[in-house]
Specification:
Layout lengths: L1 H8 L5 H27 L2 H6 L1 E4 L1 H11 L2 E5 L8 H8 L3 E5 L5 H13 L3 E4 L4 H9 L3 E5 L9 E6 L2 E6 L1 H9 L3 E9 L2 E6 L11 H22 L22
Parallel strand pairs: 1-9, 2-5, 2-8, 3-4, 3-5
Antiparallel strand pairs: 6-7, 8-9
Helix pairs in contact: 1-2, 8-9
């Protein structure tokens, strides 16, 4: 699966180079689990000490103007450490999560997330809790880089191929007028760099459906750019292009 996805994303690379990126992505995932285990037993201050934050002025501008923000992120770098990184911003955070299929792993992930003081919002029935979190002046983070079911998605380009992408973040942004702030994390040796990017303002169009598609496209493009900068730190083993447009004759 990882090699097939890499062939879609990087057709110009030879097979050996794609295999190298694929192997490094599995190595990255192994290191990620070790880091998370360490984060559970060490004081939170030690975890925060391994993080650097850049671009905070973008987030401060959004929070000063409207008192709330939707955070766009992805399964890139050690994404679980973003739960701790919010402590460096000074703003409270809520994360929309889907429970993991493994109950023990889900319990560990919840422990780590709650250790840093974030609010966890179950993806199922998330609308009201998300709106309440925004009204309370929180940042609300959504990971937007995984295959989405057809009934909850729009198809937008990702590495040149149509990808079924959740429209939830764009719908929230368009309906509430809340800016979307892309934030990604990348491992650099033993440290992690958290990068806050300029906000994606909801499109100023009268057609809400068109605005949702356009904003989802911008969000996906931001994720693609971030992945391009550290391809070995993305989750290539996920079947990102599994759901296909109805017009396609074959999967």
């Amino acid at each position: 699966m990882a090699l097939a996805n890499l062939a879609v994303a990087f057709p110009a690379l030879d097979a050996a180079e794609r295999r190298r990126i694929g192997r490094r992505s599995f190595h990255h995932l192994g290191v990620l689990f070790v880091e998370l285990a360490a984060s559970l037993v060490h004081p939170l201050e030690r975890t925060l000490g391994a993080l650097s934050l850049e671009g905070l002025e973008h987030l401060k501008g959004v929070m000063a103007a409207g008192g709330r923000a939707l955070i766009l992120t992805a399964h890139l770098g050690n994404w679980e450490l973003l739960a701790a990184a919010h402590r460096l911003t000074g703003y409270p955070l809520a994360i929309v999560v889907r429970p993991l299929d493994s109950a023990p792993l889900n319990a560990l992930a919840d422990r780590l997330r709650r250790k840093s003081g974030v609010e966890l919002i179950d993806k199922r029935g998330a609308l009201r809790p998300v709106l309440r979190a925004l009204a309370d002046g929180r940042m609300v983070a959504i990971l937007l880089d995984q295959n989405a079911a057809r009934h909850e998605s729009v198809f937008v380009p990702f590495f040149g191929r149509a990808a079924s992408t959740s429209k939830s973040l764009a719908v929230l942004a368009v309906r509430t007028g809340t800016p979307v702030v892309p934030i990604f994390i990348r491992r650099e040796g033993r440290r992690h760099r958290v990068m806050v990017h300029p906000p994606l303002v909801p499109p100023a169009v009268n057609d809400a459906e068109r605005a949702v598609v356009e904003l989802t496209m911008r969000c996906t493009a931001a994720i693609e750019t971030a992945v391009m900068q550290a391809p070995e730190q993305w989750l290539w083993m996920h079947n990102r292009w599994r759901t296909r447009p109805a017009a396609e004759a074959t999967p």
